[in-house]
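Figure 3 (text version): structure tokens given as input.
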């Protein structure tokens, strides 16, 4: 039964991040297909803009699906989010080109991206909530690490699929099969989820009366839980900053500041991503032994301390140094990300947990995580100093450290006994 729960929790992450990364992999292709071909650079910027809308929609999706998950059930929210993810995948797979239908093409792609953004963030957090409620708290780190590895596996599959279906010599429309494959996987995932029951913890405490969505009630929820939400935002912010600075920003940054062959840099990045995926359950298991929050505190502390030395090493442009620094970043990222849901799970009551974790975490991702490549690039351009992005990474590390220490002081040390008990 526990294996089945892990599969149910992981499959949605794999499918959604497969489709999400596939879109990112094909951004340049979409720029020429769905936007005016005579202005390629403008088309590319617009396509990146469409890509960014997915991140902006994550907090809204967290509010909507959080309400569903806390009132109608975890299973309902997770099944609906995966079913809805099938729709944008089909839209992308079947949308005619700009040449064929004009302005409708980019509008349809933008609509697909908005739907993806609504679903993807809450899928990750919701699957964590559902799965961890089916396991004892002493295994939260290991189980959380396995689930955190599932979207990384989906991303890798998306990258491989994108590469295979766009190989030279294949028919021009062959790339659409990659998204059709994603649709098939989504249908399979929805079927698997339909075969599982509700979270026993939720079923035990939830009354049969469901609340309709009320904006004022949501404001009261924020008022009751604002410190917990700030903690969760800090956790989501550092998780996002860790990931996007390593696997999005550095991919382009290192090609600018080092003489290393881009092909070698790409291989190092892929190797680091695989290392990160493998480290997640390992660090999760370690956190179950020494304490989830303690390991997060270690990660955030060393993020602050090592941010500058890491970027100094990047600046030197030595392949071995770049690889070592990437591996250190993978370790820091896994050490913080694997146990964090076990920590957030304890902060909210069962009937507010889905909303609290989804809203706070996705706000952190939207505000601090997804903006990391943009702000890091701006700092580099402003200062013309290759080590300047370390300032931003250290600052977000400080936010993660604050979130972890605030959690420990108010919960684990019991300075405020009723802090984590909702009225």
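Below: residues designed for each position.
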């Amino acid at each position: 039964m526990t294996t089945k729960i892990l599969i149910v929790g992981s499959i949605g992450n794999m499918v959604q991040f497969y489709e999400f990364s596939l879109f990112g992999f094909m951004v340049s292709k979409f720029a020429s297909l769905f936007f005016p071909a005579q202005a390629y650079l403008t088309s590319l910027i617009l396509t990146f803009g469409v890509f960014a809308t997915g991140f902006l929609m994550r907090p809204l999706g967290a509010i909507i699906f959080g309400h569903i998950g806390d009132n109608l059930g975890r299973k309902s929210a997770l099944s609906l989010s995966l079913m809805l993810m099938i729709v944008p995948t089909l839209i992308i797979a079947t949308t005619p080109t700009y040449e064929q239908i004009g302005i409708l093409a980019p509008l349809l792609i933008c609509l697909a991206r908005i739907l993806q953004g609504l679903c993807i963030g809450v899928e990750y957090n919701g699957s964590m909530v559902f799965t961890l409620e089916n396991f004892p708290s002493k295994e939260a780190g290991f189980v959380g690490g396995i689930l955190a590895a599932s979207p990384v596996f989906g991303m890798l599959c998306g990258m491989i699929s994108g590469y295979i279906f766009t190989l030279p010599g294949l028919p021009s429309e062959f790339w659409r099969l990659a998204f059709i494959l994603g649709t098939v996987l989504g249908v399979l995932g929805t079927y698997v989820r339909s075969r599982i029951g509700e979270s026993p913890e939720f079923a035990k405490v939830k009354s049969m009366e469901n609340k309709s969505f009320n904006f004022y009630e949501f404001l009261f929820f924020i008022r009751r839980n604002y410190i917990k939400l700030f903690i969760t935002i800090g956790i989501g912010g550092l998780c996002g900053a860790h990931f996007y600075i390593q696997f999005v920003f550095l991919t382009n940054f290192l090609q600018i500041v080092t003489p290393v062959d881009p092909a070698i840099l790409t291989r190092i990045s892929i190797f680091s991503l695989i290392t990160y995926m493998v480290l997640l359950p390992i660090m999760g298991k370690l956190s179950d032994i020494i304490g989830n929050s303690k390991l997060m505190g270690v990660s955030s502390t060393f993020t602050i301390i090592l941010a500058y030395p890491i970027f100094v090493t990047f600046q030197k442009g030595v392949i071995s140094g770049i690889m070592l620094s990437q591996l250190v970043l993978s370790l820091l990222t896994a050490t913080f990300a694997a146990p964090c849901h076990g920590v957030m799970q304890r902060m909210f009551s069962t009937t507010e947990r889905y909303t609290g974790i989804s809203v706070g975490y996705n706000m952190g991702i939207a505000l601090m995580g997804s903006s990391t490549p943009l702000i890091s690039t701006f700092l580099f351009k402003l200062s013309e100093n290759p080590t300047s992005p370390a300032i931003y990474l250290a600052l977000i590390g400080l936010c993660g450290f604050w979130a972890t220490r605030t959690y420990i002081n108010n919960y684990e040390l019991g300075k405020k006994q009723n802090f984590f008990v909702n009225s």
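The two ends are 34 Å apart (CA to CA).
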